[in-house]
């Protein structure tokens, strides 16, 4: 099946009893154990609704197996702890999502895990590897600067040195990028974003091989963080439209990126689909589409970023991203607020940087809203 079809059909559990065409919602947290090989329990990550969603996501990412979590951070933290422990070293990119960055800086020392933040390029990531490195964690495109790293290069180097690689594929989505096919070991997503797609649920997922999924599941059983049946069902329903949503959002984002690039009040646009953007050639070689996230810096001397956001009528100032509605935020005071001002400055998250999550609206309405805001 092609992706659009996988979105609709993969993983669906037949409703044998009533003949309904959707996966039924199995609300039980207590399941019989007699005459069964596998005991089902929500925190064992193996209930019917969890399995249905995992199967769909595995089909979309080209994975053998996966684990569904109650948040993106549960997926990321559990996956990292499954492959790195005390006395071991993790290489991470310094542009990782703020929450992942903060997980390392706030918790690793106490856990005895050594780490290095490397710049967002394959050479820097590979040269940060040490004798005791076990894990490499990357993200591409990054939140919020849309930087792109050569995934294949990192994966090949890590494989040669027997390191596990993890990528956060949230911004790209399985529709626009499939890192397992580029040699990465584990793909994680904040399903709260595009997979859910309607800004009404929180979840995360790790997809990989059977062997690595077993390892992640065994740590996950200790840490908890499983997803309930109702949210699994909502997620499964949302995933049926993932391909059409992301296709439309990507098209809208491309139009807006070009509009902003031409606009005299805009200093810089970060979008991997713009030929002038750093990393655009790599993005072209490893992404099927450039996604629906972009960020831009206004020329402070002409338009104040905070005032511009307040002038918008249709585009909502909101945290999170990936919903069907277009939202805007200032990463310096939201996703990256936990970083010090010096760290933000170093990686380029300036106070005038704005991040746009483009929705499925008619693009002319979005452009008119932005134009009106920029004119003020
Ligand atoms: C790229 C990325 N990864 C991970 C996360 C964490 O996901 P969650 O908020 O679902 O825990 C986020 C949240 O904003 C994100 O943007």
From TrEMBL:
The keyword Ribonucleoprotein does not apply. Belongs to the trans-sulfuration enzymes family. GO terms for biological process: methionine biosynthetic process; transsulfuration. Transmembrane segments: none annotated. GO terms for molecular function: cysteine-S-conjugate beta-lyase activity; pyridoxal phosphate binding; transferase activity. This is cysteine-S-conjugate beta-lyase. Gene3D superfamilies: Aspartate Aminotransferase, domain 1 (3.90.1150.10), Type I PLP-dependent aspartate aminotransferase-like (Major domain) (3.40.640.10). The lineage of its organism: Bacteria, Pseudomonadati, Thermodesulfobacteriota, Desulfobacteria, Desulfobacterales. The modification N6-(pyridoxal phosphate)lysine is found at residue 193. InterPro entries: Cys/Met-Metab_PyrdxlP-dep_enz, Cys_met_metab_PP, PyrdxlP-dep_Trfase, PyrdxlP-dep_Trfase_major, PyrdxlP-dep_Trfase_small. CDD domains: CGS_like (cd00614). The keyword Nucleotide-binding does not apply. Keywords: Amino-acid biosynthesis, Lyase, Methionine biosynthesis, Pyridoxal phosphate, Transferase. GO terms for cellular component: cytoplasm.
